[in-house]
Amino acid sequence: MSQPVTEYKRELSTRHINMIAIGGAIGVGLFLGSGKALHQVGPGLILIYAIAGVMIFFVMRALGELLMYRPVSGSFAEYAGEFVGPWARFATGWGYWLVWIVTGMAEITAVGEYFQFWFPEVPQWIPALGALIVLSGVNLIAVKLFGEFEFWFALIKVLAIVGLIVLAALILVFGFSDVGDTASLSNIWSQGGWFPNGTASSLLAFQIVMFAFVGVEMVGQTASESADPQKVLPRAINSVMLRILIFYVGALVALTALVPWHQFPADGSPFVHAFTLIGIPAAAGVVNFVVTTAALSSCNSGIYSTGRMLRTLSEDGQAPRRLGQLSGRAVPARAIGVTFCAMLVGVALNYLAPEEAFTYITSASTAGAIFTWGMILIAHLGYRRKVSRGELPEGRFRMPLAPYSNYVVLAFLAFVVVLLAFDAETRIALYITPVLAIAIVVGHLASRKKQPARV
Q1: Integer Cα distance of 309 and 312 in angstroms
Q2: How far apart are CA 146 and CA 16, in angstroms?
Q3: What is the pLDDT of residue 33?
Q4: What whole-number distance in Å separates Cα of residue 407 and Cα of residue 76?
Q5: What is the pLDDT of residues 330-344, one digit of tens each?
Q6: b or e along 134-150 (b: 16 or more beta carbons within 10 Å of the residue's beta carbon)?
Q7: Which whole number is the average pLDDT over 340-359?
Q8: Are 213 and 63 in contact (CB under 8 A)?
Q9: Residues contacting residue 379 through CB under 8 Å, at least 6 positions apart
Q10: Is 75 within 8 Å of 222 (Cβ atoms)?
Q11: What is this structure's pTM?
């Protein structure tokens, strides 16, 4: 009789980790959500993405220092438990699981919307369900297969954005295509200024922008399945700022230079619209394929993350023990099955309210992600306090400007939460949050007697 599998396999190579990090930074929020944000804000969205990107970079450096201290699966929950308290482990673990559940719902919603580009008569919920089934199957087979899928998904996204930027540069220099005569860098500021709709209303776009970065922290989940985490993870984290500048700021500069911001529809992908106006109709289909893979990539990552987080919670006695068992292929199959069932709610939303599904889901996901990022920063503060007292050794990958940068980013995250209240569509996140908080408190109290003693 074969022995049960109790450890993950370290089958994620350097190229897998690097592309997972890149893919986590390029989600459906850029390809789909930026259309609404660009219509709402104007070219000032470029500045908003840059500001938010700086904040996310500090979050990632805080996470990076914690990972170098102790690279573990379920890292966010483990660090929260060690440096904040047992309640924080429970809240962060289950909160992050919920973040990826609703993010996965958003991604399959996007798949349904993009699929209608080719087959408008097909109900939105059908391709959403198909995507969920296929990606769950991929995650059940082996972590290496997940890594391969994520590598190619991320590569397609990177090539698409780099291609857009290069094409925009060529059009600006040589003036070819249907927009060649009107394309100009001056389009960025000459169509009513940077914030043509007013600075106050533009601030509401921060929640859309922050959703675009949901998943950037997922590279921390790969620590226990990476072949060389001490070498690969710092390199991947340090490149976050460069990726944001290229993929977000660079893409938006290219889009708004080619096409005046007010010509982008609020309910569609600005990438597809730009290529259509350029006069390359076939390219619109290609771009639609690219943004579909972007959504599939993020959902793929979500299934991976939630499975690992549920297993961590199970090992800590904060989730049913059965969810912690690994299959013969060294994947948390039962935890992935629970994730699949939970994400079916997203399919139901696409059936019941296809028009509102994306906004509802992204609002709830943003609130949950902000909690996770905040807890990473708070746990990092606890870690640094222990280092300063000599209780833990000094790390080699220190967060810049800590602890002051921690407080600045925490204040920024609180500011984004406040902004959710000023938009009727995003306010639903604030309605849901207290309910989830009560559920987490009740769950934590119920699980306390089942938790194993921790050293």
Answers
A1: 5
A2: 9
A3: 65
A4: 18
A5: 888 899 999 888 888
A6: ebbebbbebbbbbbbbb
A7: 70
A8: no
A9: 66, 76, 79, 80, 82, 83, 84, 88
A10: no
A11: 0.85
Residue 424 phi/psi, 5-degree rounding, is -60, -35
* The two structure tokens encoding residue 251: 């893409």
Q: Is 218 within 8 Å of 74 (Cβ atoms)? A: no
Q: Is the peptide bond before 403 cis (omega within 30 degrees of 0)?
A: yes
Note every long-range contact of 372-375, with CB atoms under 8 Å and residues 24 or more positions apart, other chains counting: 372/76, 372/92, 372/95, 372/96, 372/99, 372/217, 373/56, 373/59, 373/217, 373/409, 373/413, 374/410, 374/413, 375/76, 375/80, 375/84, 375/88, 375/91, 375/92, 375/95
**Residue labelled with tokens 């300063």:** 388
**Pick from 57-61, 83-87, 244-248, 402-406: least confident:** 244-248
Between 320 and 229, where is the model more confident? 320
Contacts of 182 (CB under 8 A, 6+ apart): 260
Q: Which ranges in 142-205 belong to alpha helices (H)?
A: 143-174, 187-190, 199-202
Q: Which residue has the tokens 């028009």?
A: 355
User: Using CA atoms, how far apart are residues 212 and 417, in angstroms rounded to an integer?
Assistant: 15
